[in-house]
Design a protein that fits this description.
By secondary structure, the protein is mainly beta. It contains no helices and ten strands.
Length: 111
């Protein structure tokens, strides 16, 4: 089962991730919500839409803007609406054969 791990803690875990541009997007219900704080940061992707961010907090340490999601993505990315992906040192552990859906969408964005 794919897991997102930061600072030694599992912060998300799901067999229902969506993989887009090599990033595992975790369903909202799979997040350990006590580790997430809303951020003011937003970025724009031409084909996915506007991303919003969370900072990840574990044991008093904060990883600013380490998670992002598309609350209202464009049609081409509708499969990841509300799903959360990670960067900035958050480790994704996924074994071969773990259940996830790979999106064939084209175009690369920073996140």
């Amino acid at each position: 089962m794919p897991q997102a791990i930061w600072n030694g803690q599992v912060i998300a875990e799901s067999n229902s991730t969506e993989v887009v541009e090599g990033n595992h997007y975790f369903p909202p219900a799979s997040l350990r919500k006590d580790h997430f704080q809303p951020s003011q940061k937003t970025t724009e992707c031409g084909w996915k839409g506007t991303a919003q961010y969370y900072s990840v907090v574990v044991d008093g340490a904060t990883n600013t803007d380490a998670a992002w999601y598309y609350p209202e993505p464009k049609e081409a990315a509708s499969n990841i609406a509300g799903f959360v992906a990670f960067w900035k040192g958050v480790e994704i552990k996924a074994l071969p054969g773990d259940a996830s859906n790979e999106s064939g969408a084209s175009g690369q964005c920073e996140v």
